[in-house]
Amino acid sequence: MKHSFAILLACLLLLTYSCKTANTGDNVVENRVDKLLLQMTLDEKIGQMSQLEPGMFDTEENLTKAIREGRCGSLLNCWGVEKVNELQRIAIKESRLGIPLIIGRDVIHGYRTVFPIPLGMAASWDPEIVRMAFRIAATEASSQGIKWTFAPMIDITWDPRWGRIAEGCGEDPYMA
């Protein structure tokens, strides 16, 4: 949970920075973000930095209640267009501030179509085929309401004892 919190916080900061640098002088996004931050309670701010799994809630009712109360800003491992659309509708129409959810999932080596693990794809030394594989995975995930994937991972790994080494491209920075 600590890692999810840190990742979400970093993404929120990056998103805020991106909004500020992407403005063309009208500051619409920046103003909206600032206005929302001023209106948010501490619990709602913590909720926006919380990435939760639907299974953490005993019932669908508890999940929707958390969304309505602003205690959930992101869901991990939640998919299916109908389900995602319904949860987004609740977040936008039934929560106090109407902030949409971020839906994420590990899509390390494909979503519906399974590709080799990233370490294996890197060993092909064929960036174009790797790009195509991740594009297919992104398209498939997006079709199920997943708009944020934790892939490709570009960590440089030198220690084979690390349990997630297969999710990266290995130890060569050029390959990554």
Q: Helix and strand layout, with pairings?
A:
Elements: H1 2-22, H2 28-39, H3 42-48, E1 51-52, H4 60-68, E2 74-76, H5 81-94, E3 102-105, H6 118-123, H7 127-142, E4 148-149
Parallel strand pairs: 1-2, 2-3, 3-4
Strand neighbour order, sheet with most strands: 1-2-3-4
The general outline is elongated
For the record, the count of structural domains works out to: 2
From the N-terminal CA to the C-terminal CA, the straight-line distance is 27 Å
Q: Note the run of SSEs as H and E.
A: HHHEHEHEHHE
* Beta strands, count: 4
Oligomer: single chain
Low-confidence stretches: none
Q: What class, by secondary structure content?
A: alpha/beta
What fraction of the residues are assigned to beta strands by DSSP? 5-15%
Mean pLDDT over the residues: 86
Helix residue percentage: 40-55%
Rounded Rg: 18 Å
Biggest sheet descriptor: 4 strands, parallel
- Give me the number of helical elements: 7
Name the descriptors.
176 residues; alpha/beta; four-stranded parallel β-sheet; 6% strand; elongated
Describe the 3D structure:
The protein is α/β, with parallel strands linked by helices and 176 residues long. The protein is 48% helix and 6% strand. The protein has seven helices and four strands, in the order αααβαβαβααβ. It has helices at 2-22, 28-39, 42-48, 60-68, 81-94, 118-123, 127-142, and strands at 51-52, 74-76, 102-105, 148-149. The two termini are 27 Å apart.
Brief digest:
This protein has 176 residues and is α/β, with parallel strands linked by helices. It is 48% helix and 6% strand. It has 2 domains: 2-104, no CATH class; 118-167, no CATH class.
